[in-house]
Amino acid sequence: MNPEYFSYFKDKVGAVTGASSGIGLGYAKYMLAAGAKAVFLCARGKDRLEKEGGYLAERYPGKVFWETIDVTDKKQVEKFVDGAWSKYEQLDLLFNNAGISHLCSVWEVDDKLWEDLFNTNFWSVKYGVFAAIKHMLQQKTGGHIVNTASISGLVPYPYQAAYCPSKFAAVGFSRSMRYEFYEDNIKISCVCPPLVDTTMVRETGMPLPDDVLSVEDAVDYIMKGIAENHDLICFDYMERLKNLLDHVMETDGALLDNALARRKHMDAVGSPWNR
Ligand SMILES: NC(=O)c1ccc[n+]([C@@H]2O[C@H](COP(=O)([O-])OP(=O)(O)OC[C@H]3O[C@@H](n4cnc5c(N)ncnc54)[C@H](OP(=O)(O)O)[C@@H]3O)[C@@H](O)[C@H]2O)c1
After folding, report:
1. ∠ CA 212-213-215 to the nearest 5 degrees?
2. N or C: where does the chain have the smaller number of CB atoms within 10 Å of the terminal CB?
């Protein structure tokens, strides 16, 4: 863990959705290591949340609180955010991070999955932002809202035809909102990670490329971007994309290569992509 940006998080109160694993758990760990006053965690699954929350609470007594909620429920998000604020009448950082994904042909995405993806990846972000901003405005010290979108919110990766638009929506919403609250000392940053080695990614069964990021490296990078108040925290990916563009002269070419590699995988696992 890189301590260079600890000072930004010291004595702050943070709330993290999707905090029982992966990037969200990484945000919580970083904040606590940095000397945060308190961190509030939530996720749906009780066992994993209690295990990770309990471990952190042992290490940082009196600073870690958790609650099982489903972020697709507006009232539960409001209760979670209000609860985090009311403990110290302070909420400095809200990480809207909970997310779900899919990796399959668009034909296989039924209406229920479309709804789940948008409810989790977009509407929950809207619920979180609205719940937090009223407190951040009230407390005068402002605050920082960090929405974890994805590189798939900037680049239309194939076989993620429902995930991508849910993340495009989150990116557009975050970036647009940032300027609306700029003068109120409320910062809004949008995180667009490339592939990070987490449960979500492993569950797809796709072989991980050699350059997959570890959670710790991803979180170090993100925390730097937050501390420096970046609008878009998109790693060196844009640089890599530029290099790709230099090679193939057109984005379509790179994405087609990507699609072909994924189709090869679908064939190998027998996914009915070509109905
Ligand atoms: N890993 C990557 O390569 C990558 C790349 C770009 C963007 N992202 C984004 O990063 C964020 C974190 O993902 P991750 O990779 O760290 O995956 P992860 O390890 O699977 O973590 C996802 C977290 O979200 C929680 N969650 C999911 N649905 C929820 C709901 N309805 N209500 C409350 N909590 C919910 C999960 O817990 P429960 O299941 O118990 O609720 C878990 O704590 C997501 O928004 C994802 O889209 C990931």
Report:
1. 135
2. C
